[in-house]
Design brief:
Layout: H1 3-10, H2 16-25, H3 30-53, H4 68-73, E1 77-81, H5 83-91, E2 100-104, H6 124-132, E3 136-141, E4 145-151, E5 159-160, H7 185-188, E6 200-204, E7 212-217, E8 224-230, E9 236-240, E10 243-247, E11 249-250, E12 256-257, E13 263-267, E14 282-285, E15 287-292, E16 297-301, E17 305-308, E18 314-318, E19 325-330
Parallel strand pairs: 1-2
Antiparallel strand pairs: 3-19, 4-6, 4-18, 5-17, 7-10, 7-16, 8-9, 8-15, 10-13, 11-12, 13-14, 15-18, 16-17
Keywords: Kinase, NAD, NADP, Transferase
EC number: 2.7.1.23
Protein name: NAD(+) kinase
């Protein structure tokens, strides 16, 4: 989805002239957006035409139409955009058997590190010839599995951060706990540890993290309070601006090298005083466990989806071989 398509999807009631004026009022250039949109559309059409010319059945869908049912229908998933589109496409692929191939449709404005080389952006037919001839190698990229444990965690729905518009009057809306609307005031005020043990659940989130996970308060100005255990070591109570976990380490392209099954974590702006301390504000890990002590917190995956993660909830982060994402490298 191009930025122009995103704006149209977000504001379908606006005419083109109204959209132009709305963008201008925000300091954005309508003509520039249309130019990038046409480049994206032209390269997308070259992909679909090349595939159909070889008898491949193709379904072109937008981000808001991307569902598990569509993923199950396809033999191969292809993302048309940049790294953000690739990450979004990867999030719903839960098996290592289904390949994901990324095409950078605007290489002058997008790095496309996860996509095919930029030389194929406007000439996808060349890449397709190599793929059909078997002149490629499979590459499995490790991902992070997230398991939540806590009060009715299986009822927590993800918030789509791309479609989210937070109003100044209601920053809590996306993660307001609607599970408690039918409860009495007394039940609603119970600490998670005081609720019935029968309502404690464990669930694996239906999304895998390919790039990064952020855990912390939804309001950036608030201090995040949680307990952290790395690779089974003793728990450490921490206060900070949140915790970031990503795959392995950054390389010179400012992306990750996921060739080794390890995560790297960073405690952001840790508070260190007579009560709280952080022995290792950053490091590598095979398994990370976090217990939330926050009251309006989220667990955000690859910058695309956010899950409520409030006081008492626990998250287990680990890398499993069966969660690896199948991608290609052209020889």
């Amino acid at each position: 989805m191009s930025r122009y398509e995103f704006e149209k999807h977000k504001q379908p009631y606006l005419s083109e002239d109204e959209l132009r004026r709305r963008l201008a009022a925000r300091g954005s250039n309508y003509e520039g957006l249309m130019k990038r949109h046409k480049i994206h559309t032209r390269n997308l059409e070259s992909v679909t035409e090349a595939l159909r010319s070889h008898g491949v059945e193709v379904k072109v869908i937008q981000k808001h139409e991307y569902t598990p049912e569509k993923v199950n229908w396809a033999d191969v998933i292809m993302s048309a955009g940049g790294d953000g589109t690739f990450l979004m496409a990867a999030s719903h692929i839960l098996t290592r058997k289904k390949p994901l191939i990324g095409v950078n449709t605007d290489p002058s404005r997008s790095e496309g590190y996860l996509c095919l080389p930029k030389e194929y952006s406007g000439k996808f037919s060349r890449a397709l010839d190599r793929l059909l001839a078997g002149k490629f190698r499979w590459r499995w990229r490790n991902r992070i599995r997230i398991t939540l444990e806590g009060y009715q965690v299986s009822h927590i729905d993800p918030v789509d951060l791309d479609d989210l518009e937070l109003g100044a009057h209601d920053h809590l809306g996306p993660h307001r706990d609607y599970r408690y609307q039918s409860e009495s005031d007394d039940e609603r005020l119970l600490h998670p540890s005081e609720r019935s043990l029968d309502q404690t659940e464990t669930t694996v989130l239906p999304i895998r993290a390919l790039n990064e996970i952020f855990i912390g308060e939804t309001r950036a100005s608030r201090t995040s309070y949680y307990e952290l255990s790395v690779d089974g070591r003793r728990w450490e109570k921490q206060k900070s601006s949140g915790l970031t976990v990503l795959m392995r380490r950054y390389n010179n392209s400012l992306m990750f090298d996921a060739s080794e099954p390890k995560m790297t974590y960073t405690v952001r702006d840790p508070i260190i005083n007579g009560v709280f301390s952080v022995k290792n504000p950053r490091g590598f890990a095979k398994r990370i466990t976090i217990r939330s002590r926050c009251w309006d917190a989220c667990l955000a995956v690859d910058g695309g989806f956010s899950f409520q993660f409030n006081d008492g909830a626990m998250a287990y982060l680990e890398i499993l071989p069966e969660d690896a994402l199948r991608t290609v490298i052209l020889d």
